[in-house]
């Protein structure tokens, strides 16, 4: 927006709306409303509660690690908007994101930081380079932690069920190396996904607190998969 007539400057020099709401708070509120509407149509684990959990953890990590909490919170809220799994294409998703950002009173540097985070944190078959900024590390850890533990297990089966993926096939081994295209569209099973991605996340955490949480959640997933296989094979009795 170009019209700044509804803004004043508060005592610290930051823009403030006439109703006392800071410009940043207004942007975050608009982001929540936008994303809640967008995520409300997803039932595959990329829903609004997922966004809420990732955002809360990203803010906590930002404060613990000394990252910019506003950039982390906004990027976490918006991180699934352009996801190619949830849109016709990555290009269509990025267009949707940028059209929303065009309506916000964001400093160019802040917008660039948020878009960079969203564009670089996805797993995508493990082929992406490590993220560089502290804010990207924080949001990536928060998103990956929500793919682990009990919630991660539930989301994995929800996503697989929504996509018609079978739970397990002992004759189909996990894939060791995959291109981005193979990761997205190749045949696999829900249990294989633990080996192809989820079990790898523990060693990919960026922050000290992220690594601490990942250890607990990783151990729970390993125990679950071992028990699943015992019950599948009938060796638990």
Features:
mainly alpha, 10 helices, globular, two-stranded antiparallel ribbon, 237 residues
What does this structure look like?
This is Metal dependent phosphohydrolase. Pfam families: HD (PF01966). Keywords: Hydrolase. It comes from Paenibacillus illinoisensis. GO terms for molecular function: hydrolase activity. The protein has 237 residues and is an all-alpha fold. It has one domain: Hypothetical protein af1432 (Orthogonal Bundle). Helices cover 57% and strands 3% of the residues. It contains ten helices and two strands; from the N terminus they run ββαααααααααα. A two-stranded antiparallel ribbon has the order 1-2. Strand 1 and strand 2 form a beta hairpin. Helix 2 crosses helix 6 and helix 3 crosses helix 5. The longest helix is centred in the C-terminal third of the chain and has 26 residues. The radius of gyration is 20 Å and the shape is globular. 29% of the residues are buried. The N terminus is likely disordered.
Write a concise synopsis of the structure shown.
Keywords: Hydrolase. InterPro entries: HD/PDEase_dom (IPR003607), HD_domain (IPR006674). It contains ten helices and two strands; from the N terminus they run E-E-H-H-H-H-H-H-H-H-H-H.
C-alpha Rg (nearest Å): 20 Å
Note the main sheet: 2 strands, antiparallel
The top-level CATH class is: Mainly Alpha
* Coarse structural class: mainly alpha
Percentage beta strand: under 5%
